[in-house]
Design goal:
Layout lengths: L20 E2 L15 H13 L4 E4 L2 E2 L8 H18 L4 E5 L2 E3 L2 H9 L10 E5 L9 H10 L3 E5 L12 H8 L3 E5 H4 L5 H12 L5 E3 L5 H10 L3 H9 L8
Parallel strand pairs: 1-2, 2-4, 3-5, 5-6, 6-7, 7-8, 8-9
Helix pairs in contact: 1-8
Length: about 250
């Protein structure tokens, strides 16, 4: 049995029940830079329930050479972790395991193998870019993925500071049907004021279809609790419609 770490010292409103589903997090234990143990994952999921989420996909990193995960191993680990969740007494519905795929040289090879772990009934592939360096031709890679018959979600576009929020590249991705997923913690200022303003601008443009927690560990979970009090977060949830519960 797990313990609940000491952050539940005040009443929290479950403001994210309007989203229902978390589509991006790193709570499969010991596979990337996310949760380091089953206990930490269960503690974080307890917070997800507390703030209003009732179901989730888990999306570990696939990134070479830092996180050279294989789809088969991740699926096996997910089956075992799901048993831990069922035995914990949590009510969270684990909808499945996807991946957050970095567009790198390894990703290009994966397109031909076509063994991606996906999220949603329409089997979306969650992809990310480098946070620091522009990869030339990434938009063509996404287009090739779509031409192979896949739906694509771009994770946290507000964090790619080398891409202007009105850039032709982002416009091109929207025109070809790419969904954008912003991080809730970007809106609360967890990553800094620039990411917060960029996330808000993208949402106001109508370019963001999904919100995700991108939860990694207990530090992120504490920040997510605090985000329930954020005026920006509450305003966004009130004004805009997101597709989380429809995915």
């Amino acid at each position: 049995m797990f313990h609940i770490f000491n952050i539940r010292h005040s009443k929290i409103e479950p403001v994210f029940n309007i989203l229902e589903t978390d589509v991006h997090n790193h709570l499969l234990p010991e596979v990337d830079d996310g949760s380091g143990s089953v206990e930490e994952s269960l503690n974080c999921m307890c917070v997800l329930e507390e703030v209003g989420f009732s179901q989730m996909y888990i999306t570990p990193h696939f990134q070479e050479p830092r996180f050279p995960n294989s789809e088969g191993d991740i699926k096996n680990r997910f089956v075992e972790f799901k048993k831990d969740v069922e035995n914990s007494g949590l009510y969270m519905n684990l909808l499945g395991v996807g991946g957050e795929y970095r567009i790198d040289d390894g990703f290009v090879r994966r397109i031909s193998q076509d063994s991606f772990l996906t999220v949603g009934q329409d089997e979306y592939i969650l992809v990310e870019l480098s946070l620091r360096q522009h990869r030339m031709g990434f938009e063509k890679t996404i287009y090739d993925l779509q031409m192979a018959g896949h739906q694509v979600i771009l994770a946290h576009p507000e964090r790619y500071h080398y891409l202007a929020t009105n850039s032709n590249m982002l416009q091109q991705l929207k025109d070809q049907g790419t969904l954008f997923q912003c991080n809730i913690l970007s809106l609360s200022g967890f990553y800094g004021s620039e990411s917060r303003s960029r996330a808000t601008e993208l949402i106001e443009k109508g370019w963001v279809e999904l919100l995700g927690t991108d939860l990694h560990n207990e530090t992120y979970a504490k920040a997510l609790r605090e985000a329930t009090r954020s005026r920006t977060v509450r305003s966004v949830l009130k004004k805009y419609h997101f597709l989380n519960h429809e995915l």
